[in-house]
Design goal:
By secondary structure, the chain is mainly alpha-helical. The N and C termini lie far apart (34 Å). α2 packs across α4. It contains 4 helices and no strands.
Length: 63
């Protein structure tokens, strides 16, 4: 899997927020050593970004 570039280009919300969310999600995936890492040749950030852009994983900003 490659980074979801088309979805990134079409994204109309705050890019900083989703970048921070992808970074945090990538950290979570790597810490639990999820099987999805092996399935995607260790591309943790790409997996995290795909999960966020496809709404498989939701994020929110806490005040």
């Amino acid at each position: 899997m490659i980074f979801p570039l088309e979805q990134l280009i079409k994204f109309r919300d705050n890019i900083y927020e989703i970048t921070c969310a992808a970074s945090r999600r990538a950290f979570q995936i790597s810490m639990v050593r999820d099987d999805v890492i092996q399935e995607n040749q260790g591309k943790v950030v790409s997996v995290a970004a795909k999960q966020l852009f496809t709404d498989e994983v939701k994020y929110r900003i806490e005040q």
